[in-house]
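for ur thesis appendix - SF3 helicase domain-containing protein. copy paste whatever u need, i formatted it the way the template wanted (i think)
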Amino acid sequence: MATESVHLPQIGDKKRAAPKRAAPPGKPSKEYIDFLNAHYVTKENPQPITNTRIGDKDKGGKIPGGSFHVSDAEYPTFLRLYGEEIIRKGVAEHLTEKQLENGGPILIDIDLHYDYAVTAKQYELWHVEEVVDNYLGVLKTMYQFDENTRFLVFVQEKDAVNRVQEKNITKDGIHIVIGISADRQAQIDLRKRVIPLISGEDSCGQLPITNSWEDAIDASITTGATGWQLYGSRKPHHDVYKVTHIYEITYDPDDGECMRNTIQLNEFDILQNLYQLSARNASHPSYIYSGEYLKTRNNTTTIGGKSPSRIPSQNRLTKSALNESLLHITNQQQLQDMVNDFIDTLKPQEYDLREAYNYVMALPESYYETGSFAKWIRVGWALRNISDRLLIVWIAFSAMAENWSFHDNIPDLCSRWQGFDLKNPQGLTKHSIMHWVKQDAPDAYRRVRATCIDFYIDQTVKAVTLDNISNDKSSRGCTDFDIANVLYHMYKSEFVCVSVKNNIWYRLKGHMWLENDSGTTLRKAISTTLRDLYWNRAQSFIEQAASLNPPDEERTKRMQDYADKILKICERLGRANEKKNIMTEAKELFYDANFVEKLDTNPYLMSFKNGVLDFKAHCFRRGYPEDYLSKCTNNDYIPIDEARDAETMEEIREFMRKLFPIPEIHDYMWEHLASILIGTSSANQTFNMYIGAGQNGKSVLTDLMTLCLGQYKGDVPLSLVTDRRTKIGGLAPELLALKGVRLAVMQEPSEGDQLNEGVMKQLTSGLDPIQARAPYMLQSVTFLPQFKLVVCSNAFMVIKSHDHGTWRRIRVVDFVSLFCDNPVQGDTEKPYQFLIDRNLKDEKFEKWKYVFTAMLVEIVFKTNGIVKDCDRVMASSNSYKDSLDYVGDFIKDKVIMDPQGKMYKTEVTTEFGTWYESTYGRDARGRPSSKTVHAYMDKRYGKYEKNKAWVGCRINYETNHAGTLASNSDSEIDDIDKNEV
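the 3d part is after this line
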């Protein structure tokens, strides 16, 4: 069977203020320190601990200990900061990770103790490989590996042994991470089985260790009681563990052996894949337990104790009478009898369970035969999430496989079932199952749907017909709500109402949720599809009445009465007023208050016409309703074919080389454009400004990106980022339209337009939620911005702020090329001139968009959306910052150092105003306020309040406001007189 990776949930947690005491030894960045400070666990801020720092204050050291809580959603950000500071820069750190209770990787900590006389490593490479092979040999007996099995093993070692004089021993060690998702019981059993193999004389038993192998393989790591040393961290005064060997493990079904292939270290980017080495990685592949292991698993005791493990097991399952019966099923007839008993005992209001059974059993072979693990396990997840009672349905579904074994497979399914989510609102649902059937077995889907709807149609008739069939004063047969309920069960997986008051509807089309005007399509279905179903149901009763043999007058009359009642309902379904009333009731049934908030929230998914790109799983797959996608590129995704696309790829590369002739900027822009595809703007938090005079390609590039991105490209009104009174948090449909957008392009600003720095920070953070609402919404929708903010302009915007938070985000990209009809070579002012192609967009972009998108996808799969800064871009950004430092220029022109000098606020305010007008004119849009000027002076010359003046400096009145020496008319007259004499 194939494997399925389970990824961490993406739910953002707000940062929390904490004492500033998280700095490790060395010189890490302020961003890293601030992140840890914001995640400190204290009495005032109690949170589940995910990380701990090993302190060293008891020995006179300066290493502060502490505990931290980093949410699953923020962990990738934490690892990015950690990797940059600790691994790339080599700053010393001492962090551990709390292990996951279940589902984390297999972690092995081998502590080797030798006699103190030992001064060098005693084991060799073959010992390491022997340990790995012994673990693999046991794993293949515990799990059902197949041809699709693939996982990684990481071996970490220290450079040298550690001689501990006070204990008279020499220590060495090995850390191993096996990339399999394993529960705690499996890790305990694995350790128990491996120790006798490793300790044998033909294995590692010949090593001269002074401790036993029972002690050497750390049991506290296996049980999860002890934290795992985060890769790159170390104990105080100890060396750090480094990755020395990486193995890719596959399985050969023919000989039943695991294959160990070495991956060269230079082929594995640890910074980009640090999460693979984390104890908190829940995305490793998981595998089905073997029957042999399941039989012995239940008798396992915990390490160091006699009490049974708390891991879900077959013994726990027998506490339920139903599960006890399941474990005694030995053949297909017994299974079918139990399924029939389950279905027959369902109450009318439990039709959801009946319907779930019908749809699951309609799924095709690709969901349960060999090689279907990914689909098969999702069916189990969905059923468990619907109801705990549906285990029998999952077993009946799985039993359709050719290699099914009642003896081995039922205990396995029961054990797995207990680990699945129950009633998880974020999990798979019955709608998911219905969608799978509709996509992969459309004929069966139509049959099941019709069968299920018959049940609901009968319910609408039974309530009034049996008791009131002869009562002429009775109601019309059933209420509007009853019919709306039938409509709901027909289309609940296809339609959603998001506003009852404003009649706003969405419809699932393919894998996209698209707005449907007032539910018009559903309203039409009342008088077509629904009406036909009632008509067919009436016909079936008429035919049954006519075919009764022997004739039964009472039954015939009852069937005809049923048919007449249904036909009257058919008449109602064709009337406009009746349809209006039914739709009114349907709005309440189809209403989902949180639906809009769910749309387009996964930053790792991008929708194409032919499927969905999953940037986290690095794959292109079919879309699902639970992806909640409403945006689309409006293009098919077509992976690169080197032979087919060679010419187009070269055209695009040539286009980019001309657009960005400076290599540094060229490389930066490829990474920047690729990063736009992923909605994790928090990774870079940048505001890119495309700056350049006319005919330099800015608009052409954005036009190409617009074609590639489709609905994932949005426009930002200039007022949103220039107005001081922003609409964020209020009625702002233009802001809500940016939800899920990946590229947000600002309207071109005019010269002198001032940027609202606070809004810009919020739009580019990727971590600060934005609130906005459309006119039809009663409450605001909260979402995290996924877009990269870009502005194309000939002139710079005015930015008054000079704080780090603003300018660390600014990236100025110079468009230095000139595309013209008569390019001049060797022009020193404009050295990069190229012949303009006026038909480029019309003739090539439609073809380019598919290949260009695929090229960007290949890049982003490698970079994961991280954009490396380049010197040219940063230099232009810093130059931009310096050009807006008006107060600094004023100080250069008008202030001189004087030990006896003083400056006063009124004096500085007056002189700055005069200087600014003489230098920049009377346009005050970019002029700093007096408060800003005074704050700048405080930083430069000390706090004003201390001396009621800035001391040690004074205004230089000997220069005019143009910065030149002021003339002295008397001196000039004297000079003239002397010359004349």
